[in-house]
Amino acid sequence: MSSRLFVNRGLTGFKFCRNLNISWLKDKEFNYSLHNARNSCLSTWDSGINRTENLKKEGTGTTKGNPKKATGPKITLIGTDNAISVVGLEEGLKMAKRRNLKLVNLVEYDTKTQRPVYRLMTIADYNQEHLKDKKLSKSSNVKREKFLNISSRIEKHDLASKLKQVEKWLTKDFEVRVLLTGDENDMSAAEAVYKSLEEYLKGKARLLQKRTIRSEIKFYIRSLPADKVKSKSETEETRESQET
């Protein structure tokens, strides 16, 4: 004999369990079967709720195993206010597009931070820099360029290694574009680094187009023609012989 049993657990939406076949033998057997049927129905309902909640979590991406969205390689970003931050390249491109700015690559690879250096520039500043570079390249026979980024807080041994690197580039007829960053409130340390470069390269190269913009000093380094270097070395030798 079959019977339809209604079980109320006090949960919204749970009204009844269907088609529970219970043998109608004796009162004790009926009560025992009813008790087992009720527990089985409640267990099935609980497992169904748990499965639904897990599926919702997986669908909304709230589980701990959900992977984070990739933002591309990390870069050092210099903002229009000279604030320095580390962001993903994709994020930097979106930032530039959102604010109608240009994302300009200053240094391909900074050995200290092991990241490329980019700068956000307004359209006007970008066009102005582009025109200056274009005019300078026309007036110069040097075609190949190297980029150097130096901080005013650089240690002496690091500065010495960079000076040697600059000297190697110059011997291979490279033009070196330098970006020297310092403290906008006190540029004395940056000026001291500039003087060190000037003294080290004296008689070997010239530091040209020096421009100080807020906390930055930009300039070019070009090697002297071979005849000028030779004449200067001869002059120094003559002076030393006269002194002795």
From TrEMBL:
This is Translation initiation factor 3 N-terminal domain-containing protein. InterPro entries: T_IF-3_C_sf (IPR036788), T_IF-3_N_sf (IPR036787), Translation_initiation_fac_3 (IPR001288), Translation_initiation_fac_3_N (IPR019814). Keywords: Initiation factor, Protein biosynthesis. Residues 73-135 form the Translation initiation factor 3 N-terminal domain. It comes from Ladona fulva. One of its GO terms (biological process) is ribosome disassembly. GO terms for cellular component: mitochondrion. GO terms for molecular function: ribosome binding; translation initiation factor activity. Belongs to the IF-3 family. Pfam families: IF3_N (PF05198).
